[in-house]
Amino acid sequence: MAGADAVIALLASAVVIAVPLVPGGESQAEAERVVAIRDVRILPVATPPIERGVLLIRGDRIAGVGADITIPPDAEVVDGAGLTAAPGFFDTYTGIGLIEVAGVPASNDSQEPGGVTPQLRAADAYFLDSELIPLVRNAGTLVVLSVPGDRNVVAGQSALMRAAGTTVEAAAVKEVAAVHANLGEASKGAGFRTRMGAATALRQILQQARGHAAREDAPPNHRLDPVVRVLRGELPLVVRAHRRDDILIALRLSEEFGFRMILAGGADAPLVAAELAAREVPVLVQPDLQPSTMETAGVRYDNAAHLSRAGVRLAFQSNETTLSRQLVPNIGLTVAYGLPYEEALKALTLYPAQIFGVDDMLGSLEVGKEATFFLSRGDPLQVRTPVVSIYVKGRHYEPRSYQTRLCETFIAPVQESIPCQPTR
Amino acid sequence: MIRDATILPVSGAPLPRGSVSFRDGIITAVGVDITADSDAQVIDGTDRYVLPGIVDVHSHLGVSPWPWVPGNSDVNEDGGDPLTPQLRAIDAFDSSDPALRWVAAGGVTTIMLLPGSANVVGGQGAVMKLRLGRSADEMLFEGAPGVMKMALGENPKATYGGRGQMPSTRMGVMALLRDALSQAQSYRARWDAWNAAPESERGAAPAFDPKLDALADVLRGEIRVAAHTYRRDEFLALLELSDEFGFELGSFHHAMDAYRLGPELARRGVGVAVYADAFGRKLEHWEQVPQTAAYLNSLGALVTLHSDFPFFAQRLHTEAAKLVRYGGISEGDALKTITLSAARLIGVDRWVGSLEAGKHADIAVYDKHPFDSFARVEKTFVDGQLVFDRGRDRAWLERTP
Q1: Which of A124, A172, A286, B246 is the most exposed place for a label (fewest CB within 10 A)?
Q2: Over the stretch A87-142, which tens digit does the pLDDT of each residue have?
Q3: What share of chain B is helix, strand, coil (3-state, %, to 5)?
Q4: Measured CA distances, A207 to A224, A234, A256 (Å)
Q5: CATH 3.20.20.140 domain locations along chain A
Q6: Of B154, B290, B375, the CB nearest to A403
Q7: Residue B289 to chain A, least CA–CA distance (Å)
């Protein structure tokens, strides 16, 4: 019976937590709420760290960052002693929102067949109530790129999402952030069997889109229009590629068709670092990428350091969904293997914001930017450091998830010394 | 001798400025005031951290060697029979698998090699030492107990269910196990009776059956069971089965639900191997709680972290650090889950898992505290032999142009 009681308690706790929220909106009181976090260590990222300062929030914006900020009398004051404030981290390649339990087809909306499917939009299937969203939020990742599955040569359109929000419109930083292409092993089976086939399919859709864009009377075309936006420079094309030749094909196409390219993955990217730097192609680096496939055989933990030294702009990605919360612990690998700490921090914050054109809102703690940040008890890049408090667009979130509830249901009654939720 | 380093012996308190000496593969002394023998080679350990070699209790290295293409995969003999106790992982172990070196570069010195989880009984594993460059037989950990891999739940269901074959359900999994064990029970009785009879009264020997013979060794307690299982109902069913047939249930692997059965698992002394915070590709692995290992440790259960994949094996120190973050466990106890407790789980803690005089000189040297996210292994010793050295192995570490 103890088990049954525990399950009932679990359900009850879930009900209690589900406080009704006005979809997408915020009350007048919230819009004007002033919060001052004082005596906190601040990593503004764009400027040097502040060892002991005040972070002032008004509504959903940052209203002050500094060592000598006067706290307004109407401010709600939060003691930040012993804590560090950092801007929300970006994870620039995930299946968040599209995949829940990967092995259960009913909860997996990541992969369509078809080979070339630019018309797909991650935002259309984004699962706002995914249990995985609080998990990444609790790891300090507050912005994720939700990307359609990688087995098509052109996969579709990704969405840049905040790790909180009750409607897609409210959670989205950009409902359409980029169009995605995949070269190499992942897309080889998408209606053809070789890299020749994949390159041909990619070139073909680019040519079709160019022809379509040239027609003055072109009717709307859901399949070609997103590619046209890429050709016009309105959206970047993120190309996932690992082998040197795959990367070079993508670079050739970007020159031939004149689109803005972002490289994702890039096991061999250090071999073409000079070209990437010269053409200002940023790279979305997976810090724990392994030689688990033939095309990633050349990957090394110092890839990020090599690229950074060559002047390539970096952002980090987990290339994961359930394991996306491991992104931050894995960043340590890049620092251990030569990437300067400050660059690692920027590649989690300011650089991805710049790469996706949202650095006017996000990516650093600066007056006027969005209050999307978190507080951790120590260096946020250290695996031992817990995240204790989260703010997304000024709204506060406790570091809780369904796993917290399971812990409180099954562990806390037996052993109360185990912290189910990190304490401040 | 490694001297003037921070020693984390695991069996005792950290020594901020201590030394470890070893000779002929055996640790001779661990302490602050030990002097080097006149013929000793001395390694300066200033600013370094020295700990026992990491033990990974769940590995498929060598049986699916790199590169991970179908031609290299020998981990699952899933051709049609879900019961394959006669298989031995060591028969397919490629001792020149490059991934062995990657894992040694993560401070790992001992692994428990296991067949895969497609079959309900997958076959016999082996405890191996990462004596790189040696043959499979030479890498075997002398004296380590035998192990039989079993697998319950979604993996055998998915492997055979898709072919319209048993097991398609968890009922089928248990029925197959029970049937195999009762046959093995009769087989064992026949052989034990024959062996016990005086030579003059012995008739013809009972028929030899390689499958039942291996399972009979499980029933005799000569081989311990390592069960791949996620759910509480499966833990309970296996515990019941082990009581019914009297075999030793060594360990539950990937035991996600262990937090739902903490006191029972601590009482029964079953080893529990979990991931720190990985979960979720399968429904049976969804309700994960990252406090599990810290919780079980607090109850006195035997709990370890395991890798299953080379890339986790290479960073088990980071996995252990996560226990500090999520479960509030002490750093000493967290380190124990990947060293001494892991050695106990696979039955080799007499020889490895801590830095103590008389134990094997299996040692990892880090440039920072092993739980520091920016730490790297500098040297790994197995039996006192340097199997990884970041300076010496530079050529191997460099990218091929």
Answers
A1: B246
A2: 999 999 999 999 999 999 999 999 999 999 999 999 999 999 999 999 999 999 99
A3: 35, 25, 45
A4: 10, 17, 10
A5: 89-355
A6: B290
A7: 5
